[in-house]
Amino acid sequence: MRSTSLLALLSTYGILLAIVMAIVQRRENWTGWTLVLLSGYALYAWIDPAGFVWLIGVTLVCYAAARLQHHPSPSVSRWAFAIGILAIVVPLLGMKMWSLARGSSLGSVIPGLAGTLLPLGTSFYSLQALSYLIDVRRGTTPVEMNFGRFALYLGFFLQLFAGPVERARATIVQFAKRPVILPGAVLLATELILWGLFKKLVLADRIAYLLNDFWQHAPTSGSALIALYALLSYIRIYADYSAYMNIVSGGALLLGIRLSPSFLQPYLARTVREFWRRWNITVSMWFRDYVYIPLGGSRKGTGRWILAILVTFLLSGVWHGSGWQFLLWGTLHGAWLVLEAGVTASFRRACHAPLPKFLRGLFSAIGWVCTTAFVSVTFLLFQAPNLGKAFTLLERARFLQWHQLLATFPLRTFDLGIIAAAAVLVLIVDTRNDPRSDTLPAGQPLFLRMFWIGCCLLLILHLGLFAESPFIYFRF
């Protein structure tokens, strides 16, 4: 697999968008989506040839299986549906389990193939293919007869590598229209792209440098260092992935496409349940609709609900990665949700009257602290090279004076200051902004938005780390 650096991808994205929009503006009778599809295929084939072959195979199998759902013979439609589902799920799970059994992360090159064992973006467009096929079978989504539009639904280059995971009924219809730049779309797209670049280059990559060096050179670490590292892991993952979503959403706007929001201020969550309603929303909704609810959800008793929660988050862990740390991460989140629900139900039974406003605020604050601490510690598993190193770090934890922390990190105080200031700015801006709004920051006049764009550009140029650092969710 070739380099998937941020600058290379952004340059390619920008060139493709410019070519498509230039041709579309000159030819009124041509939508340009064919060029978008072929350009995306060319980009994917150059980055990961084996992955491109995989994408074509998934597209053909899913398209054929969906078309056969209208076959006059019920047995043919059932077999087509089953074969389509298995053809997508079995190889995906098989390669993840193979790597899990070998105790290594995906990415080992298979002799004779140019790509990785799990092709780039497979985990994302496989979910889209499965949701489309299931919805067609249920009758909630019509069969898309136009192969080009369906292929674009799975292979739209802006969301191909790391989502968001879109539903066919909301996305394919947008590809049936001619790309039109909506009023205000260029300004909003510029804001989103620059804000994403700021979060990625100034905040996420700077923390990544610190954390990567920590895993390689950290001596025996103490509890204070672990706490700070866990919090930085949370900030880094949020900044990195939300940055990607900002960038692709901005690029899609330039083609007249609106992608679904993936984050809704998850750092404000007071429970883990609320966290999953705010974090990586399109993936969370997918597992809710196609795993949790079909397993019974909360409709068939406590035992069935616990099973549904645990299985859903176990599969979510497997989807996120092939290491044992991802499996443990999913299990911990499922177990915490079960425990959280039990504690909440017991508390409500014990309280026969509404709590005073002060106590409600106090319990909300405690819930926020507990949720942030739990999410931060479990995200530590994402950053660990393997489960063994994560356990070793926790086992060696002992008391460490906070004033010793600065001496532990290979960064100057200036760099730590940048991280702190950038993190505060990200929290303020993302908290003020609704991802479904039309401006960033929301509701500001034009001259302030132009000033904001200029500030973002200057901060990126002066403080950004322009190094080879792919987005973290590319590994999934």
Describe this structure in words.
The protein has 476 residues and is mainly α. Helix content is 68%, strand content 0%. It contains 18 helices and no strands. It has helices at 6-26, 33-47, 49-67, 74-102, 122-138, 147-155, 168-175, 185-217, 223-253, 272-278, 281-292, 302-320, 324-350, 357-383, 387-395, 405-408, 413-432, 446-463. α8 (185-217) runs parallel beside α18 (446-463) and α12 packs antiparallel against α13. The longest helix has 33 residues, at 185-217. The radius of gyration is 23 Å and the shape is globular.
Short summary:
The chain has 476 residues and is an all-alpha fold.
The SSE order reads HHHHHHHHHHHHHHHHHH
Q: Give the % helix.
A: 55-70%
Rounded radius of gyration (Å)? 23 Å
Q: Sheet bearing the most strands, described?
A: none
Described by the principal axes of the CA atoms, the overall outline is globular
- The count of DSSP E runs of length 2 or more, i.e. the number of strands, is 0
Relative strand content: under 5%
Individual helix count: 18
Looking at the chains present, what oligomeric state does this protein adopt?
Answer: single chain
Structural category is mainly alpha
Nearest-integer average pLDDT: 80
Residue runs with pLDDT of under 50 for 5 or more positions = 104-116
Describe how the helices and strands are arranged.
Elements: H1 6-26, H2 33-47, H3 49-67, H4 74-102, H5 122-138, H6 147-155, H7 168-175, H8 185-217, H9 223-253, H10 272-278, H11 281-292, H12 302-320, H13 324-350, H14 357-383, H15 387-395, H16 405-408, H17 413-432, H18 446-463
